[in-house]
């Protein structure tokens, strides 16, 4: 079926699909903490967390976050470092920083009220089409369709849509389809029903068509072409970078530096490091990076470990070295802040996921 054919589906069929989805959702939805509330702030927090992270990971973070920042006023009053610490390990830290800025803005100018209008809510930092549709439809029952990977997969199979789902332009195409299909009487439940169907039944591999509430109307199922959908274009392999990280010890304290708030992993703390040039040994690269980024002369003592970490658009392989401080003062035009901290104080600072791959073994070493 061509993309445009979705718009030609008879009204009775659309109504039947909507009804089947919403009643399946009310009987089969997972019990999740954010489904017990209509509080727009709570729903906003959950949707921001869920945007790049799996449900099972989000549950404990969501509970912890709302214990620490139970309403928008608590979040607005918090220090950004406490917000990042609470978010630590969840990744994509711009989500936390933007949520914090948005909360401050709403408390300062709107008495802490979460806007229920698209134009108003959508202009807040960190609020894109997806978050706006999620919060407005679930908390306020506004008729905005949500589109994520699950939704694209379900609709591409249901209507045999040939638009590649991993092309950025596909968002608009699927948003139009989801808008046509949206149940305007129950937009929140309809949106969640499609996503829940994608998560539990219409899975990427081995969809459970035999128990699917919309199999009667599913083109891919009827035509035995499920494996052809969703259509994807081949992506190029993500690049892999060689890095070094230096744990500099001085008087049993370690040097940690803070990343600029703007940009990737903004506001988080890390051990100094940087890229390894081709032909350069890992230990020389480590000493050079330390000299260049923080202006200290060090002796490389030993290699602690090698870690691998994947980000969205690239991967790193980093050699982590134990280094002894020799000389120099941390340069003031380097990182935005630095601290010399005892091993036991490391847990007070938010670190990126890559660092959590070696901090435990570092602590083990220094605590014995
Ligand atoms: S019938 Fe199968 S392929 Fe079609 S929507 Fe249901 S689970 Fe997905």
Class based on secondary structure composition and strand pairing: alpha+beta
Share of β-strand residues: 5-15%
Number of strands: 7
Low-pLDDT stretches are none
Mean pLDDT, to the nearest integer, reads: 94
Number of helices: 15
Compute the number of structural domains. Answer: 2
* H and E string: HHHHHHHHHHHHEEEEHEEEHH
Distance between the termini: 66 Å
CATH third-tier fold name of the largest domain: Endonuclease III, domain 1
| Biggest sheet architecture | 7 strands, mixed
**Alpha carbon gyration radius:** 24 Å
What is the C-level CATH assignment of the largest domain?
A: Mainly Alpha
CATH superfamily of the largest domain: Hypothetical protein, domain 2
Percentage of residues assigned to helices:
40-55%
| CATH architecture call of the largest domain | Orthogonal Bundle
Bound molecules: iron/sulfur cluster
Describe the structure.
The model has no long low-confidence stretch (mean pLDDT 94). The protein starts with 10 loop residues before the first helix and ends with a helix. It is α+β, with helices and mostly antiparallel strands and 368 residues long. The protein folds into two domains: 226 residues, Endonuclease III, domain 1; 128 residues, Nucleoside Triphosphate Pyrophosphohydrolase, CATH 3.90.79.10. It contains 15 helices and seven strands. Helix 2 packs antiparallel against helix 8 and helix 9 packs across helix 11. Strands 1, 2, 3, 4, 5, 6 and 7 form a seven-stranded mixed beta sheet that branches. Strand 5 and strand 6 form a beta hairpin. The chain is elongated, with a radius of gyration of 24 Å. It binds iron/sulfur cluster. Iron/sulfur cluster (SF4) binds next to helix 9 and helix 12.
């Amino acid at each position: 079926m061509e993309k445009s054919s979705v718009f030609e589906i008879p009204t009775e069929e659309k109504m039947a699909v909507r009804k089947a989805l919403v009643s399946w959702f009310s009987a089969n939805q997972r019990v999740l903490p954010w489904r017990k509330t209509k509080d727009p702030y709570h729903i906003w927090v959950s949707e921001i967390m869920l945007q790049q992270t799996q449900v099972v990971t989000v549950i404990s973070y969501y509970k912890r976050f709302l214990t620490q920042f139970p309403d928008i006023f608590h979040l607005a009053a918090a220090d950004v470092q406490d917000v990042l610490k609470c978010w630590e390990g969840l990744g994509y830290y711009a989500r936390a920083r933007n949520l914090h800025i948005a909360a401050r803005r709403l408390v300062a100018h709107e008495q802490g009220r979460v806007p229920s209008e698209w134009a108003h809510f959508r202009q807040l930092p960190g609020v894109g089409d997806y978050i706006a549709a999620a919060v407005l439809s679930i908390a306020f029952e506004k008729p905005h369709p949500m589109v994520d990977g699950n939704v694209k997969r379900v609709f591409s199979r249901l209507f045999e849509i040939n638009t590649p789902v991993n092309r950025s332009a596909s968002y608009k195409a699927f948003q139009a389809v989801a808008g046509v299909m949206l149940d305007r009487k129950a937009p929140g439940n309809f949106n969640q029903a499609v996503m829940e169907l994608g998560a539990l039944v219409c899975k990427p591999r081995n969809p459970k068509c035999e128990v699917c509430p919309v199999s009667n109307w599913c083109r891919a199922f009827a035509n035995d072409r499920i494996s052809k959908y969703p259509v994807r274009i081949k992506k190029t392999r993500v690049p892999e970078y060689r890095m070094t990280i230096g744990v500099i010890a001085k008087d049993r304290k370690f040097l940690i530096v803070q990343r600029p708030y703007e940009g990737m992993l903004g506001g988080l703390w890390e051990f100094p490091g940087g890229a390894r040039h081709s032909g350069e040994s890992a230990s020389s690269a480590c000493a050079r990076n330390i000299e260049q980024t923080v202006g200290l002369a060090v002796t490389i003592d030993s290699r602690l470990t090698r870690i691998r970490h994947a980000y969205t658009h690239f991967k790193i392989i980093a050699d982590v070295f134990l280094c002894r401080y020799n000389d120099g003062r941390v340069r003031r035009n380097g990182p935005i802040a630095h601290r010399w901290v005892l091993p036991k104080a490391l847990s007070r600072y938010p670190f990126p996921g890559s660092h959590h791959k070696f901090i435990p073994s570092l602590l083990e070493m220094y605590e014995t």
